[in-house]
Specification:
This protein is an alpha+beta fold. The chain has helices at 55-60, 64-70, 81-88, 90-100, and strands at 10-12, 19-21, 25-30, 35-39, 48-52, 78-79. The strands form 2 sheets. Strands 5-3-4-6 form a 4-stranded mixed sheet. Strands 1-2 form a two-stranded antiparallel ribbon. It is globular and about 40 Å long. Zinc ion (ZN) binds at residues 13, 15-16, 18, 51-52, 54, 57.
Length: 103
Amino acid sequence: MSKGKGHIPIRTCICCRARRGRNDLLRLVLDADGMVVPDAGGRKPGRGAYVCRDAGCLSLLHKINRLQRVFRTKRPVALHPDLFGLSAMPEAFNGKAGAASRL
Ligand SMILES: [Zn+2]
């Protein structure tokens, strides 16, 4: 009866400050070009931040000043186009959970 993965680390959403299990949040990474990219696998190197997998929180990411503070950079920060897609279509990356909740 093992759960397999052990306990889940708690992270805070950079938009609404909700504390959630890491698996419930989307990891964001600032890459070398100043681009904020979604890191669905949680494996990219670099400074990470977490945001709810929620259209409301994802749309708040568009407030670039906040992202500069989160990533502690003074350089311009750009959102990867995938993040715009995610905030427009939250169900696309809720995946199975989204489908199941409609039963
Ligand atoms: Zn949030």
